[in-house]
Amino acid sequence: MKTNTGIALLGAGRMAQVHAAAIVAAGGRVAVVYDPATAMADALAARTGARVAATAEQAIADAEAEAVVIATSSDTHVELVIAAVQAGKPVLCEKPLASSLADSRRCIATIGEAAARKVFLGFNRRFDRGHASLRTAVHGGDIGRLEQLTITSRDPLPPPLEYVPRSGGLFRDMMIHDFDMARAVLRQEFVSVTAHGSSIIDPEIGRLGDIDTASVTLLGADGAIVTILNSRRCAFGFDQRIEAFGSAGMVMSDNPRQCGLQRYSAAHPGTPAPILAFFMERYGDSYAAEIRLFLQCARDGQDMPVNAYDGLMAAYLAEAATLSLKQGKTIHLSGPDQEFHHG
Q1: Domain housing 220
Q2: Where in the sequence is the signal peptide annotated (predicted)?
Q3: Are 161 and 290 in contact (CB under 8 A)?
Q4: What is the pTM of this model?
């Protein structure tokens, strides 16, 4: 697979535009675009020099498309992943793998576990420089035995209300990144999930059946405790932090700042510059790193380091958290193919 790899980009919305920029930054090119919203597809194709396909199948089959990136709505991911795999093309699928645990299971069952490990799942926060450094430090034993992991993820503003009913819910749409990060740091599965959530930022989100403020506690098989905090609103920007505490110390991945300025005055005694505004400012570089790694693994025929099986496991934790919130109980875990048990 050459450096200037041609990619079929499925989707032309916000996340597809993020991936289009990352493809170019990683040295690839968008060869063909498909989106049922033809005006959006035309606009993205014009910006990238790509052609517009009439159908997703046409885009996948395009002769110049050596790989496929899926950035469509969550409810379309499974069928498109299956189509790309069956076409014999490397595929990167934006999170989540599917809009439900049942569909995630169906995807893995259809393509097979070996193929599933060659589907790159877009948990791009694994490739953020700070988060990756924290993970390396934990795995290298810098803090001794990991005892507590705290993951904080707060968006600057809630999503549009029309998005809420089709999002799958906060656990599946937002916290799913943090479930994956917890698994990546601990390198073990969890034995229980306990969730709390409320709708206190915008009561309309609650009326639409979702929450906007949540905490989840995961218990690792070795006794390590993971706490995940999510909020749909943060007055000071995009709050993305991880703290790993262990028997020999602690490491943190903090919020990057807009610049290195620190202000000293009576009103601002040592106040640093603001944190970054939203996900593209924070994670733009990690999207490009994700694409580069995807193309390298595809070229070498390797399993993807974060793959469809990781997508299944994140969906499993999201489903367990949803059930815990609904029932007000701790959910005990025995594997993604097993039924949940509560205590």
Answers
A1: 126-282+314-342
A2: 1-20
A3: no
A4: 0.90
Q: Are residue 193 and residue 220 in the same domain, yes or no?
A: yes
Query: In angstroms, rounded to a whole number, what is the distance separating the alpha carbons of residues 180 and 65?
Result: 29
Residue owning tokens 């379309």: 76
- Is residue 36 domain-shared with residue 60, that is, in the same domain? yes
Distance of CA 23 to the CA centre of its chain: 17
Tell me how crowded residue 303 is: count the other CB atoms within 10 A of its CB.
14
The answer to whether 226 and 264 have CB atoms below 8 angstroms apart is: no
Contact between 80 and 279 under an 8 Å Cβ cutoff? The reply is no
β-partners of residue 148 are: 225, 245
CATH number of the domain encompassing residue 97: 3.40.50.720
How does pLDDT run along the chain (343 residues), one tens digit per residue?
556 889 999 999 888 999 999 999 888 999 999 999 999 999 999 999 999 999 999 999 999 999 999 999 888 999 999 999 999 999 999 999 998 899 999 999 999 999 999 999 999 999 999 999 999 999 999 999 999 999 999 999 999 999 898 888 999 989 999 999 999 999 999 999 999 999 999 999 999 999 999 999 999 999 999 999 999 999 988 899 999 999 999 999 998 888 766 888 788 787 787 776 776 666 778 888 999 999 999 889 899 999 999 999 999 999 999 999 999 999 999 888 777 776 6
219, 77: one domain: no
Write down the H helix ranges in 140-276: 170-173, 176-186, 203-207
Shared domain check, 237 and 118: no
- Distance from C-alpha of 56 to C-alpha of 113, rounded to nearest angstrom: 24
Beta-bridge partners for 8: 32, 68
| 298, 219: one domain | no
Name the pairing type of β-strands 190-198 and 213-220.
antiparallel
Q: How far apart are CA 46 and CA 59, in angstroms?
A: 16
Count up the domains in the chain and report the number: 2
- In 10 A of CB 223, how many CB atoms? 9
In 3-state terms, what secondary structure has residue 271?
strand
8 A C-beta contact, residue 89 and residue 68: yes
DSSP state of 338: S
Task: Give me the amino acid identity at 207.
Answer: R
